Amino acid sequence: MADTTSIDPRNGFNSTTKIFHSLRPPAPLPPPSQPLSITDYTLSLLQSNPTFSPNTDFLIDSSTGHRLSYSDFIRQTHSLTASLATILPPPHVKNQVALIISPTSFHIPVLYFSLLALGVTISPVNPISTKSELTDLIRLSNPVIAFATSAVSSKLPSSFPLGTIIIDSPQFVSMLQNSSSGVIHRKVNQSDTAAILYSSGTTGRIKGVELSHRNFIAITSASQISRFTRDENASASPQPHPVSLFPLPLFHVFGFFMLIRATSLGETLVLMERFDFNNMLKAVEKYKVIYMPVSPPLVVAMAKSDVVLKYDMSSLQLIGCGGAPLGKEVAKSFAVRFPHVEIVQVFVIHAPL
Prior knowledge:
With 353 residues, this protein is α/β, with parallel strands linked by helices. The chain is built from ten helices and 15 strands.
């Protein structure tokens, strides 16, 4: 335990140990020995939120305007979990990895939460990966089952012990509509691997990074602290419902975590199947987006591109920048154009807790 008397309250620096400490209050974590999946933890936070309404929109397709409510999302998750439980063995059979290769769609959050509830390790990959790249990724994660769209399934280089399920098939849709299914509960330890996500390969061969349920529980809990702090600092006037735009791919660690975070907070997510800068700006204007998680190149584009001036960005309040450090000069340029928008660095923990 650090000697708190030696910690500078301005910056968290401990002059005795020469270590910087967070100035935020500690996150209230469940006991590590308590069986708990990130799915159950996230949904428990969502449903305990006094402002949460099941009729709230959870997902909006930025191009079509199609919507999925939280009640339908939860229903589909329970239904898919029950359907997959008949295919996938129980969690005591270790090293169950599911490869997922698909662009962003409404089905992906449901699939993630269902597999995680069953104790299956998810391994989402970039749908534009080549056959050679997929071969390397499969060698790293050794999946027992694959989930893919019909457009990309032909790139899978091999068969899997439990087969391949096509996400845009009638079979998968029927799994989402299993009205006779009850809620399936499986024992999932927090120390169990929740996801295998991949490095970009810029410094050598692509590497798989294991993240446990405990990893995601910890950073999700920390996001709740941030929410309560914002609530305490908010004015008495009614605040707009949080609408987030996701230009991030859901197979990436940044997009994956931000999906979990937004779900736990009951936010509405506007999804983009394919990123396009103009369409991103159009979506901010159309859906009154107040928050976006982005990468540094997007911050540069928003700060410098004249295209931005064609759209109403007045709803935007917060930008979370992650994936790489944000340069000081870029942040200054952004602040000049968007003085009403707060910009923060987002970090995702990769090491086991």
